């Protein structure tokens, strides 16, 4: 989604740090988000994502740094700042002995939705999160997936400028995940959304930008488009049905302008590293045709977010 | 906003059996006590009439009923208040309140109002017992008013202490036992310490200790004496523990 440069930042954090005793959980994290952006927040377990989100939502005071929501400082005027936020924590804060609509009524009142608009706001949140058929059921009797949706509904009922979701698709089945993703994408049009997740395709599918945390530090920040561009131009994947031996192939391909290096990527599949300025695709196709290698496929290798993620956080025991 | 939270907590209290059980037992015990006192009063009435200025029905029946109520609140209030904060922490629902544009003071006052609403129901029902005899006898309405004020102030002080203990733990039962212990210690020691300090001529310290002696402060009100220092003490005790609760919740945000 294109974001104009002059649209004001809805959430900005600078130099955010938090230590618990001698342990530094979050170290000097900067973050800024504009209206209409969806930010994916990645990191291995224990990287400090949840701690950062606690600080952004005013549930935890930072040891250093500042958070400002729509220009309101979180530390100076927390009540005014919190009015702009909708937050779904890791454990959805649900009262199990309330019905869905009672609970959303309460959430709307707590977030100061004017009484006249309250009913409409609750109805909208119920429709958006697909809760219509369970609105009169007790939250405690709902499945995990529905409870998660109630958690999301609670975070959006007051139409906040900033929506912060901590692992929103945990515990959902694939169909529900698709629905929630579509919902988050839709919310991203008018609001700023931050979501943390472990699921990398999720980030590629719905986020405009991605930030990766590791050991409390922000180790990577880029747009998804930039991420894809950065990596797609560098490596080609070439499939040949009748390939020569690898040394002959290397010798032949290196003659093509733009080819830097050739490696085996799999069965009859080769990875060709290329220079950034010259695209050797046409040269390779011509060469393969003249030598009758049986070219089956050629295209940019899908360097996914996963590669970036693993590269940056390698050596960590993932759980 | 305070009333939104109070309403929510009242609802939660009444959807669990605890509130109903406590209300029932308090009514049964007080009802029995009232009838017993009433019965005794009828029995000794002929002798009372021989006295030059005999104590009336209000003094001999209503006043002891309210003193008993104060004693029963000693365990009823911790039971009613135990879930208010501890359970929200255990279920991690407190985040809903702390993420909403609501100040910590509003959260604490909301929960305090919820527990006070229940206690006011109890006190109202208990006041109705002597008041129901207004058709048959002449009541000392001023004494009843004084008893009610005393009851409300003691209820407020007990509630504030229980709310504070509930903010210290994530286990409701631990909160109930802790609050009961704290209140019992105040009732047993507070008066003793205050009297002791007074006897040794340490007037300022004694006055200070009296703040932590809710029963000693109830005493004059129970006899129909509006003792302003006793009222100040009970109010101070309530305010002190409400402030401590706010501080405790704020500390959670600061410490993590």
Key terms for this structure?
heterodimer; A: 319 residues; alpha/beta; Rossmann fold; Alpha-Beta Plaits; 6-stranded mixed sheet; 14 strands; disordered N terminus; B: 11 helices; globular
Characterization of the model:
The complex is a heterodimer of chains A (319) and B (256). With 319 residues, chain A is α/β, with parallel strands linked by helices. Chain A has two domains: 9-224, Rossmann fold; 235-302, 2-Layer Sandwich (Alpha-Beta Plaits), CATH 3.30.70. Chain A has helices at 49-56, 78-82, 100-110, 115-128, 144-156, 174-190, 200-206, 224-232, 246-253, 281-291, 305-313; strands spanning 9-20, 23-34, 38-42, 64-69, 72-73, 85-88, 162-166, 192-196, 209-214, 217-223, 235-240, 259-266, 269-274, 295-300. A six-stranded mixed sheet of chain A has the order 6-7-8-3-9-10, sandwiched between helices. In chain A, a hairpin with a 2-residue loop joins strand 9 (209-214) and strand 10 (217-223). In chain A, helix 3 crosses helix 4 and helix 3 packs parallel to helix 5 (144-156). The two termini of chain A are 33 Å apart. Mean pLDDT of chain A is 84; it is low at 1-5. Chain B has one domain. Chain B is globular. Chain B has helices at 2-15, 17-48, 57-81, 83-90, 94-99, 104-131, 141-166, 172-199, 203-211, 214-222, 228-255. The model of chain B has no long low-confidence stretch (mean pLDDT 90). Chain B starts with a helix and ends with a helix. Classes of the chains: A alpha/beta (319), B mainly alpha (256). Chains A and B meet through helix 2 and helix 3 of A and helix 1 and helix 5 of B.
Number of strands of chain B: 0
Pattern of helices and strands of chain B:
HHHHHHHHHHH
Oligomeric category: heterodimer
Q: What name is given to the CATH topology of the largest domain in chain A?
A: Rossmann fold
Number of helices of chain B: 11
The first-to-last residue Cα distance of chain A is 33 Å
Low-confidence stretches of chain B: none
How many domains of chain B? The number is 1
How is the main sheet of chain B built? none
Unreliable stretches of chain A: 1-5
CATH superfamily of the largest domain in chain A: P-loop containing nucleotide triphosphate hydrolases
Outline of chain B: globular
- Which pair has the most extensive contact? A-B, 31 and 24 residues
The count of DSSP E runs of length 2 or more, i.e. the number of strands of chain A, is 14
CATH architecture of the largest domain in chain A: 3-Layer(aba) Sandwich
Biggest sheet features of chain A: 6 strands, mixed
Report the total helices of chain A: 11
Name of the top-level CATH class of the largest domain in chain A: Alpha Beta
Strand residue content of chain B: under 5%
**Share of helix of chain B, binned:** over 70%
Secondary-structure element pattern of chain A, one letter each: EEEHEEHEHHHEHEHEEHEHEEHEH
């Amino acid at each position: 989604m294109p974001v104009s440069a002059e649209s004001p930042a809805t959430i900005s954090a600078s130099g955010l740090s938090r230590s618990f005793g001698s342990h530094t959980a979050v170290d000097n994290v900067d973050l800024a988000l504009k209206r209409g952006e969806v930010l994916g927040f990645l990191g291995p377990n224990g990287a400090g994502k949840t701690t950062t989100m606690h600080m952004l939502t005013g549930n935890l005071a930072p040891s250093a740094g500042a958070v400002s929501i729509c220009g309101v400082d979180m530390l100076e005027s927390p009540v005014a700042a919190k009015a702009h936020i909708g937050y779904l924590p890791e454990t959805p804060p649900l009262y199990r002995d309330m019905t869905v609509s009672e609970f959303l009524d309460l959430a709307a009142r707590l977030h100061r939705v004017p009484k006249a608009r309250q009913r409409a706001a609750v109805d909208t949140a119920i429709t958006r999160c697909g809760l219509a058929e369970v609105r009169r059921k007790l939250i405690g009797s709902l499945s995990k997936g529905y409870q998660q949706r109630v958690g999301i509904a609670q975070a959006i009922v007051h139409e906040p400028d900033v929506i912060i979701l901590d692992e929103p698709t945990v515990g959902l089945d694939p169909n529900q995940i698709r629905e929630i993703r579509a919902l988050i994408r839709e919310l991203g049009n008018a609001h700023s959304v931050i979501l943390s997740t472990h699921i990398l395709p999720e980030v590629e599918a719905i986020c405009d930008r991605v930030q990766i945390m590791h050991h409390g530090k922000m180790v990577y920040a880029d747009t998804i488009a930039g991420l894809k561009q950065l990596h797609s131009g560098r490596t080609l994947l070439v499939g040949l049905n009748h390939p020569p031996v690898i040394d002959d192939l290397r010798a032949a391909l290196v003659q093509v302008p733009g080819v830097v290096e050739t490696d085996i990527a799999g069965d009859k599949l080769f990875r060709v590293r290329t220079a950034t300025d010259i695209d050797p695709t046409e040269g390779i196709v011509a060469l393969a045709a003249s030598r009758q290698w049986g070219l089956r496929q050629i295209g940019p290798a899908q360097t996914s977010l996963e590669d970036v993620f693993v590269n940056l956080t390698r050596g960590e025991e993932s759980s | 906003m305070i009333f939104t939270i109070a309403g929510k907590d009242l609802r939660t209290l009444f959807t669990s059996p605890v509130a109903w059980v406590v209300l029932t037992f308090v009514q049964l015990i007080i009802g029995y006590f009232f009838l017993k006192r009433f019965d005794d009063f009828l029995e000794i009435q002929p002798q009372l009439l021989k006295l030059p200025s005999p104590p009336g029905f209000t003094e001999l029946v209503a006043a002891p009923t309210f003193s008993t109520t104060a004693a029963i609140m000693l365990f009823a209030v911790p039971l009613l208040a135990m879930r208010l904060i501890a359970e929200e922490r255990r279920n991690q629902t407190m985040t809903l309140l702390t993420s909403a544009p609501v100040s910590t003071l509003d959260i604490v006052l909301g929960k305090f109002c919820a527990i006070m609403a229940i206690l006011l129901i109890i006190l109202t029902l208990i006041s109705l017992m002597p008041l129901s005899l207004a058709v048959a006898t002449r009541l000392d309405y001023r004494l009843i008013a004084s008893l009610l004020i005393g009851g409300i102030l003691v209820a407020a002080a007990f509630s504030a202490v229980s709310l504070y203990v509930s903010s210290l733990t994530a286990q409701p039962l631990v909160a109930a036992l802790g609050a009961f212990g704290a209140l019992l210690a105040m009732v047993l020691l507070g008066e003793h310490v205050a009297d002791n300090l007074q006897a040794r001529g340490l007037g300022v310290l004694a006055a200070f200790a009296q703040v932590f002696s809710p029963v000693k402060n109830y005493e004059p009100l129970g006899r129909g004496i509006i003792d302003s220092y006793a009222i100040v003490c009970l109010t101070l005790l309530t305010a002190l523990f409400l402030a401590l609760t706010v501080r405790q919740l704020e500390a959670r945000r600061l410490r993590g």
